[in-house]
Amino acid sequence: MISQRTLTMITHRSIEEGIAMEKGKQSREYFDACSVIEMNDLDMLRMGIEEDSPVRVVSECGEVVVTAIIGIQELPPGMCHIRQGVWANQIVPIRTQSTGVPQYSGFPVTVTPAPELKVRSARDLICESVGMWREDAENS
User: Fold this and answer.
1) Which of 1, 57, 73, 104 lies in the 20 to 30 Å Cα band around 41?
2) Three-state SS annotation for the chain
3) Domain 5-132 sits in CATH 2.40.40.20
4) Tens of pLDDT along 19-67?
5) CB 65, CB 114: distance < 8 Å
6) Which residue spans adopt a coiled-coil conformation according to this UniProt entry (predicted)?
């Protein structure tokens, strides 16, 4: 069993993310729709990742903990997908290849099972990424 693997990440909008965004980025629907990584079932099996368990995803510019699920869309082995949003934004490279748009797809990430970690809320991730201190952070 391989404990971690480098995969090719794609991010894009999804129906699930669009519907959930209408409820707000702090809603349970948005959390459930966007804090997941869709993976090929064989990759999950090879890495010992159980469906609905936390994984750490690391790119050249950041990391995030999300919940692993078997891909709703067809994903070939070696490819994974996080729906665009707060969780994906933690790992999207800032380079733009002179387009002015970050590289949302086709970048390498290392995925590692992380059953001991918790998937954090959109609010916590945003506060941390902009250096804000939260008064209630100790209680969350």
Assistant:
1) 104
2) CCCCEEEEEECCCCHHHHHHHHHCCCCHHHHHHHCEEEECHHHHHHHCCCCCEEEEEECCCCEEEEEEEECCCCCCCCEEEECCCHHHHCCCCCCCCCCCCCCCEEEEEEEEECCCCCCCCHHHHHHHHCCCCCCCHHHC
3) yes
4) 888 888 889 999 999 999 999 999 999 999 999 999 999 999 999 999 9
5) yes
6) none
Could you tell me the two tokens for 130? 């902009």
**Cα 25 from Cα 9, distance rounded (Å):** 22
Q: How far is CA 78 from CA 45, 69, 114, in A?
A: 12, 15, 19
* 67: phi then psi, degrees, rounded to nearest 5: -95, 130
Amino acid identity at 120? R
pTM exceeding 0.90: no
Are β-strands 79-82 and 36-39 bridged in parallel, bridged antiparallel, or unpaired? antiparallel
Q: State the Cα–Cα distance between residues 83 and 72, nearest whole angstrom.
A: 11
- Going from N- to C-terminal start, the domains of the chain cover 5-132
